[in-house]
Amino acid sequence: MERGKEVERMEKMKRKTAAIILAAMMAVGMAGCSTADTVNANLSKDANEFNVYRRITVTNARTDTIMLQAEGYMALSNNSSNELVVTIKTGEEQYYKDYIYLNDWTCYVMEQTEPKGTDKYHYELVFYPERLIPEIEIK
Fold first, then answer.
1. Hey, is 131 helix, strand or coil?
2. Each residue of 66-105: pLDDT tens digit?
3. In this model, does residue 123 exceed pLDDT 90?
4. What is the pTM for the complete model shown?
5. Which residues contact 55 (CB under 8 A, 6 or more apart)?
6. pLDDT value at 1 more than 60
7. Beta strands 94-101 and 83-91: pairing type?
8. CA angle, corner 57, sides to 51 and 62, nearest 5?
């Protein structure tokens, strides 16, 4: 009987030790999360669920010219072909997808803008053809 009580006491001690270690690990883990990290994660999640109005600007870094701008409720991702995938919500359960090839001279900026009280499905896509078509001199 004495042996059974000793085993029971050891089991209780193991459980208490495990609980203390677990509590310490949780405290250290929670201390590592700042408010900024939490807000950043929440904004990224909202943007990927088309709840954040954004503007993207694609620029040729060599010539400093804007090649494309788009505005709307959009999500971004990159694929294995070195393309930026822009998915824009255009209506209830309707989406528009655009691929932007990224190279050494192409860069983009994504801005979060406040909703302007317009249609939730409004978006704007602007191409600058004069910057895409090279100047040709004919002699």
1. helix
2. 988 999 999 999 898 989 999 999 999 999 999 998 889 8
3. no
4. 0.58
5. 69, 70, 71, 110, 111, 113
6. no
7. antiparallel
8. 155
Q: Is the pLDDT of residue 115 over 50?
A: yes
Q: What is the pLDDT of residue 119?
A: 54
Which helix (H) or strand (E) element contains residue 125? strand 124-127
Cα separation, 19 vs 120, whole angstroms: 49
CB 70 within 8 A of CB 123: yes
In angstroms, the CA 122 to CA 27 distance is: 45
Torsion angles phi and psi, residue 104, rounded to 5:
-65, -25
CA 22, chain centre distance (Å): 31
Enclosing H/E stretch for 75: strand 65-78
Concatenated DSSP letters of the chain: -HHHHHHHHHHHHHHHHHHHHHHHHHHHHHHT--HHHHHHHHHHHHHHTT-SEEEEEEEETTTTEEEEEEEEEEEEEE-TTSEEEEEEEEETTEEEEEEEE--TTEEEEEEE----SS-TT--EEEE-HHHHSPP----
Residue 92, token pair as written in the block: 């209830």
